[in-house]
Amino acid sequence: MLPYTPGEQPPPGKFIKLNTNENPYPPAESVVAAIKNAASGPLNRYPDPTATLFRRAAAETLGLPGPDWILAGNGSDEILTILVRGFVGEGQKLRLPYPSYILYRTLADIQGAKWEQVPFLDGWHLPSVFGEGDRDLRLVLLPNPNSPSGTVVPPDQVERLAASLPCPLVVDEAYADFAEFNCLDLVRKHENILVTRTLSKSYGLAGIRFGFLVAQPSLIAKLANIKDSYNCDYLATIAATAAISAQDWLADVIAKIKATRSRTESRLREMGFDVTPSQANFVWCTHPSGRHEQLHEYLKKNQILVRYMNFPDWGDGIRISIGTDEQTEACMMMIERYLQSL
Amino acid sequence: MLPYTPGEQPPPGKFIKLNTNENPYPPAESVVAAIKNAASGPLNRYPDPTATLFRRAAAETLGLPGPDWILAGNGSDEILTILVRGFVGEGQKLRLPYPSYILYRTLADIQGAKWEQVPFLDGWHLPSVFGEGDRDLRLVLLPNPNSPSGTVVPPDQVERLAASLPCPLVVDEAYADFAEFNCLDLVRKHENILVTRTLSKSYGLAGIRFGFLVAQPSLIAKLANIKDSYNCDYLATIAATAAISAQDWLADVIAKIKATRSRTESRLREMGFDVTPSQANFVWCTHPSGRHEQLHEYLKKNQILVRYMNFPDWGDGIRISIGTDEQTEACMMMIERYLQSL
């Protein structure tokens, strides 16, 4: 079994970090204030096992029927772990598109389960086989927007896929706040469509481990039996509740990141890159020179971290997280310098 | 599968909570200060995947050879989950003593594994069969001090059990800071002795989810592949690091809790209870009247929560967490009043 390897985490401050799709902006001031206040709270007491405060606020913000449509977890990583443990037994199978988030494969491996990758078609479309049942299939995972591409499978296609599948379809919406579409409304209509969200990306809280699942209440209740009793830290729950209530802050930050994303895509195209139009907080690009790994190394030597990704039988490229304008421009200038040296 | 049911969590402030073995005292001031300071830290960045700051401080405090002997997790609950997922496959078996911490059974059920309970002998001694191998056995779990009894299996017996077992023996030391013995030194000598610890009890940080495993480095490295990449929250890691560095605070609080525990045991005996001498931050007691469930209900009506526990084929009783002197005395007075009403 090959463990999942997340992006590098260098000592803070020394690098411009555009490799793990973090938000370059600090969280809302109301979040920081809430944490400071909670530091004097009942830390010696076990937290609410189901993060009710958060679930109430999130249900209201997202227009869900109620808090019982939400399962909160220690990052959406924990939610994904709970889903795989809950649905996929040893020898059973989960499905994911390719190339996408390889953590799903690691989760299957840990569980002693099998995984099956369905390649994207040209233009990052999904073939209909992605929605076909088979005997051992127990769970299908779709990152939407996908990584590394930043592309979105439209909700109407997600709906069609779910209708033909004999098992739950989890739409991993870690990046949905940066996209034009999301599948939240589909959860009410289809028992087998589940949506995961995280506070790590759009809300600027990767340090605070908090993510959640949106699904029909009967499923939420079953999955809650699998999670650790007290999986949500008291301070994290307070922070996440403040964050999801700060929708004005969110709208501002997303607008900034989208504007920087648009400039980044233009700059990369001007430099000859093939850039996939992104609906996430990163862009995926390839250069006709093919010197992606060398570019990654060059940037790293110059204190800029981006993600070099190589997908066997598919190809390689560079994934660049959207930073502040200054960070992103520094990265673009360094890329320019590298290309001039070729 | 029956999910694990933790103790009740009423709205804060309304009850005297002596039911979930929390520390009645707030954490060290240095912990609160560290959290307030960290609230302005890099919350938008992913945390250190292995909580290195904490592991360094803990290795030094506990006299371990190095941080690579420690795996940090989101509470020792997560550590236990990782251990069961790592060692016990579907259809395989874990062993626990009885009566003890029934969460272990739930973890086996979630995994599709089997569990086997070995009853304690009179006086809370373990029979030698607890150390016997069998074909499907993959993991043995021993809470030490045990709950509900608060008793300790001495390290020399733990060593003998481990020597005869064909699999890892996990000594769950959630309450070890309140005991006269612990098994930390045995980890260096025996590859199959593993120790779990938590910051929830003695350090007064149940709200902050943080626990850890001590084991030989080769085992730690393997288990790290199973955990979620970023399982330790940034603020929790900061808080836990400050806590484990506050050993003077810890010694004071433990001395206070032990003194209250001693007075509680005397008071209960004076009221006719059979009290098991405790090495934890709770006491287990039974009354000749047998009216344990009724006593629990009476206390609850009077805003005092203790834990009523009923173990099939074994018996029932009351587990009372040690609170402050005031909280514990209020509980004793209410018990006295109940007994007078019989």
Automatic annotation (TrEMBL), chains A, B:
Gene3D superfamilies attached to this UniProt entry: Aspartate Aminotransferase, domain 1, Type I PLP-dependent aspartate aminotransferase-like (Major domain)
Keywords assigned: Amino-acid biosynthesis, Aminotransferase, Histidine biosynthesis, Pyridoxal phosphate, Transferase
Pathway of action: Amino-acid biosynthesis; L-histidine biosynthesis; L-histidine from 5-phospho-alpha-D-ribose 1-diphosphate: step 7/9
CC cofactor: pyridoxal 5'-phosphate
PROSITE patterns the UniProt entry points to: AA_TRANSFER_CLASS_2 (PS00599)
SUPFAM superfamilies noted in UniProt: PLP-dependent transferases
Entry EC no(s): 2.6.1.9
Family matches, as Pfam families: Aminotran_1_2
Modified residues (N6-(pyridoxal phosphate)lysine): K201
Reaction(s) catalysed (UniProt annotation): L-histidinol phosphate + 2-oxoglutarate = 3-(imidazol-4-yl)-2-oxopropyl phosphate + L-glutamate
Domain of life: Bacteria
Domain annotation Aminotransferase class I/classII large: ranges: 14-329
A GO molecular-function annotation: pyridoxal phosphate binding
Single Gene Ontology BP annotation: L-histidine biosynthetic process
Quaternary organization: Homodimer.
PANTHER family xref list: HISTIDINOL-PHOSPHATE AMINOTRANSFERASE (PTHR42885:SF2), HISTIDINOL-PHOSPHATE AMINOTRANSFERASE-RELATED (PTHR42885)
Protein family membership: Belongs to the class-II pyridoxal-phosphate-dependent aminotransferase family. Histidinol-phosphate aminotransferase subfamily.
Protein name (Swiss-Prot/TrEMBL): Histidinol-phosphate aminotransferase
